[in-house]
Specification:
Helix content: over 70%
Radius of gyration: 16 Å
Number of domains: 1
Strand content: under 5%
Number of helices: 4
Largest sheet: none
Number of strands: 0
């Protein structure tokens, strides 16, 4: 039961990342201090803000999808292991951290080119 609840949490978190990224890709998020890819450079002008947020948003959609797919694929593997709850949580956390790190590295590299 605990494994299933962790699965739901990781799936919902991935879906939330996807949903929150869509307005970024659509360039609907205005410069602000709470939401978006916020750096000194992106907060200076609209052109940089929208370009960086669109790029970052696309990567976040992929990261959210990877999280959802990863948690789904790891579920049957971890179900049969004796310490399945801990292994599942650790494995899903590794997927999340890896994908978020990838998004940050790529987004900052893109920002340098702007």
């Amino acid at each position: 039961m605990l494994l299933l609840s962790q699965f739901v949490i990781f799936e919902l978190t991935g879906l939330l990342v996807i949903v929150l990224s869509v307005p970024m890709v659509q360039r609907r998020v205005k410069r602000n201090n709470l939401y978006g890819f916020r750096t000194r450079k992106t907060l200076r002008d609209d052109r940089t803000w929208y370009a960086a947020n669109e790029y970052c948003g696309k990567l976040l959609i992929v990261a959210g999808a990877v999280q959802c797919i990863g948690s789904l694929l790891l579920l049957p593997v971890c179900y049969f292991l004796p310490e399945s709850v801990g292994i599942y949580a650790l494995s899903c956390t590794a997927v999340v951290l890896t994908s978020v790190t990838y998004v940050l590295v790529r987004s900052f590299a893109f920002l340098k080119r702007l």
